[in-house]
Amino acid sequence: MKKLNRRGFLRGTLNGLTLGVALPVLDCFLTDSGKAFADTGARIPTRFGTWIWGCGHIPELWIPSSQGHNYEMPPHLASLQPYRHKLAVLSGFDVKLDGVPNKPHVTGCLGLRTGVPVPNTTVKAPTLDVLIADVIGAQTRFRSIELSTSGAKKSYSYRGPDSPNPSEISPMDLYQRLFVDGFQNPNNRSFKPDPEFMVQKSVLSGVQEERRRLLKLVGTGDRARLDEYFTSIREIEQKLAFQLEPPAPVEGFSLPGAPEAWSNDPTMENVMAKHKVMAELLARALQSQQTHVFNVLLSDTASNLRRPGTTSTYHTLTHEEPEDLVLGYQREVAWFAEQSMFAWRDFVAALDSIPEGNGTLLDNCIVLAHSDCSVAKSHAVDGIPMMIAGTGGGRIKTGFHLAGNADPITRVGLTLQQVMGVQTSTWGTMSMQTNRAVTDLLV
Amino acid sequence: MKANLILSNVLLGKFAVLTLLVGLVAGCNELSKDTAEPDPVGGPALVRVLTESQYRATIRDIFGEDVPVNGRFNKPIRSHGLNAVGSSEAGFSPAALEQYVISALGIAEHLVDEGRFNELTPCDLPAGEVVNERCLREFVSEVGYRLFRRPVSDEQLARFVSQAQFAQATLASPYAGLRYALVSMLTAPEFLLRVERVEPRSHRDDLAELDAYSKAERLSFFLANTSPDQALLEAAAKGALDIPEKLSQHVERLLDAPTLDAAVRAFFSDMLGFGAFDELVKDLDLYPAYNTTVALDAQEQTLRDIVRHLIKQNGDYRDLFTLRTTELTRPLGVVYRLPVASRNGWELTKFQEPNRLGIQSHLSFLALHSHPGRSSPTLRGASIREIFLCQEVPDPPADVDFSAVQSAPTDTIKTGRDRLQMHNNEPSCSGCHKIMDPPGLVLENFDGIGQFRQTESGAVIDASGDLDGVTYQDHQGFAQALRNHREAPRCVVEKMYRYAIGRDTVWKERYYMDYLIKSFEEQGYRITELMRSIALSENFFSIANPAVAEFAGQEEESL
User: Fold this and answer.
1) Which of A29, A316, B263, B548 is 20 to 30 A from B500 (CA-CA)?
2) Which residue of B has its CA nearest to A182?
3) A151 touches chain B (CB under 8 A)
4) Mean pLDDT confidence for A34-48
């Protein structure tokens, strides 16, 4: 009776671990390099995330005039000056359409995330965050955490077509998921595994016995969907397994307070404030290793952001606002574009404010920030603006501006996958296929 | 088909009789060509995710009205204009499953708190005591039968019972065994997914059909929007659903049941895309009358009108586009500018404004297909075409320069029509805008949340236009044109069928569609007649043969 043995083992674990005392991790326990915990030798994990803002940029206000380390900070990036050494600014990388119809605000975004441009949301490959989570996601309670701050129930993290990893849109729900249901405070001195979790885990693992039988019942197309169900079951089991282990103590971690209720109103002011709250919760989750992978959507790609009392949204403005003849660009659109960069600054600041090892949490992250198009007015997908924040504990280099010279944007995604441990030498299809990493990023 | 049945019997019989009967059968076909159902075509068997309303209805039916569902549901996938079709394409992310686990735990806990397990088990349960194996088996068999919509297999029974025993042995809490037996079942794929089973048809090589329990399931979710009840499951067990008379009895029973309202509501809220209300926001400075209550009441208003007109009054579907009678609450009365005497609750009333008629002039349509701060003739026009006429409007070209379409009213550009006029000078735009704009511009007398207006930025709104050749001066004329549009009944028939079977129709099913549309027409466009025709048709349970072939091939394949 294999089943009973496994359960017997679990029960034994329970009896053996009714009380565990954990020691706090202090910086003095770290190795000299500060990249690993000295007592266990375990490296500080590298986290990976993406941060999306909608409707692109105003090139003359965003793209630095020169390349390399000594570029002058352009107006829309001015607020990021304090973090410039932790950022790589990437301009001029293209999504190549190869004749695929450009679905405005979707094709560019999913093209750069999957390496395959699609005329709709039916992706033909997983998004790069999912590929990376497949390598590093199993080390944490959540494989990845998705959030959307403008009230839009959207996500650009896909394992397969019609299967987005849904975003949390409410800070309260995000908090509940991260820090209430099944959360173990890493700094609690005593640990007592909750036997309910053990039973739940056993219940869910039993479902796998149905897998073979059910897969036989369905056609090829549905097999992948059914299999996704069983994979998801495994992930919940894994989550429960983490909840049954004493968590590794985290120095400096304090449980954030529960957030208030927030409105879904996509006014810029509301979104900026809510984004900050959600970014701080996410940062605490990354610090306490609830997850190593995340995707943040500031505003939907066809941005729903707006200003109170006006008839247009950011997205409709990009198409309707006439260019200011003196400035040479759309004045209102520029305001939203700059606000989006303020939000990015807030996000970077939230990660950088948490000390970890010899540096900060940001230093142990690699965050790819990108938009869905370059110039929203014409839905152009050449030169989609991107930035990378954090070196992932020294896995990549930052502090410079690089112009992509119309290279396929997949070079960036390929590089990030490779440094995050995805075993692949090429990525993308047709003109987007590449085997050339971005050497400037490589250490 | 009966003709085929006769033919196959004949083949077994004498040759002399054969020739005679062949002539007869051919004659029958000639005679019944227009009125009989065309040969079934069938599509693939599907795996459909239970929708939120189906999940909630099932829990309510089995465990009671007050049982909470705490988990959050994923945003549904929409395909071919319906979440019902998306439900057979949607994936199953870990985040979604996490929420189903939360719901399952909450339901089970509630049943313990309320001492409800006693009612759900045939045996006497002293609180806190360990439940014996016989009792666990009975509980799993009975509740599992309802949840899985088919009998629990021996392997499943053994698994759920052993999990319950493990829970009892590990946990000291009362009813731990029953609680976790239930959690296992509520998170099982057999509950959350409708995995359709297929069996070959005895008298047809080219077609298969759903097995009895899958038939019961399709019927019940279509006609009652909930899991099959005991009677339907028993009928499936006895093979009664394969007998036309018995099947018909069950269809009639469901069409007479109070659950029919829920089924019709579920279909129309899917067709009308009410799920999008979840993310709808309006500018509070511009539209102070809009709030959450108004948003919820607006959907309820439309669904009440639909149910009252189509079910209670057995009205003509097309009259939904010209209906003036409606039900309002006081918050809705503020937006419609109609007095509502009762403080709480619904009041039957009539639109007074001559141009307010039909469900397309409801807030639930006008507000949903508008921007946060203004109306949108383009969104509304495209939605009239897609929702009510099943006409697809392509995406705008990616490289178009929109900047000619000014947002701020200037000296010359005051109304939505003025703004859209720009498109018509641009050939790449005008192709689609000439299709979308007229049915949207006629609704410009209603602002971004649906309040009536005569003017925009001081200019009188010109609502005239033409809908596929029928000209009109105002929304009254348009409502008539929409009501009489030949695609309107065709569209609801197609959507109803797609909704019922959970997939888009295939090319060969167009004869069957024609047949359904013709019957719908002959029956005076009565929605319950349409539902009956679909439920009783052979097409409804048919599955295309390749599915059977694929099945057989899989048996040996290693998984």
Assistant:
1) B548
2) B102
3) yes
4) 69
